[in-house]
Amino acid sequence: MKIAVGVATCGRKAILAAMIDRLAKQARKPDHLFLCPAKGDDIDTGRLRSAPFPVTVVSSSQGSCPQRNAIIDAAVGIDLVVFFDDDFFPATNYLAETEALFEADDEIVVATGEVVRDGILGPGLTADEADAALAADATPFPVPMIEDTHNAYGCNMIFRRRPMLANGIYFDEDLPLYAWQEDVDLCRRLRPFGKIVKFNRLRGVHLGVKAGRTSGVRLGYSQVANPLYLVKKRSVSLKWALKLMGGNVASNLAGSVNPPSYIDRRGRLQGNLIAFGHLLSGSLDPKYINRM
Fold first, then answer.
1. CATH code for the domain in which residue 160 is found
2. Please, where are the H alpha helices in 168-262?
């Protein structure tokens, strides 16, 4: 089985280099690493020469969807594409467990793992904190548990490439830039072709680095526009979208009173309100954030 790791990156040269250093310690090395930067200076190409696996840098327009699609197209001959965020540190057996999982069940089309710690929920984690969390999690290792799940978590997603190509299913490039909820959309469109699972032996830490993320106002707009767009294209249910939107708007309202320094709650709330205004006027469109 040929396994490639794909990373779409933007404005995080140092943490990407640290992530690649951890990838080099995998017990089962990737057969290829594909990197797609948003900008030409997002990657320290000198550091790539020492990687113990082939590395290809591909180009595309900026945005997590077109960047990941470029990787999918570039991964000719690859069976599994493992998408890691540039600030996700996988446990050293992640790819070995991935191979075993997909070889054991041909019906699995998407898999995701267990995030041991997630810095996105706070100010973010340092590389040392992530390494310490992985070291503490290493023993005892959990008894294998595979469960059906609604979608993969965007920081660590594994896709069987063949059903994607056979059915023309790619990331939706009408979800621009950060492309909030693009992981859910792609997974739900792949669901008719096989299983989507969460495997507890695929483990890692998401640092939640704040650099390179979209602005609060843009994200707030996407928190309303993107779920409703997915409802319209029938990849998710209205119930799911309303629950997601309601939770985020409520968090932004409450958080705007005394916002933490690491989350722009007021900016997100402003984006929410702009989106609701567009909804009422009939002009709601995820691509509007390109003009914000």
1. 3.90.550.10
2. 182-190, 216-232, 238-255
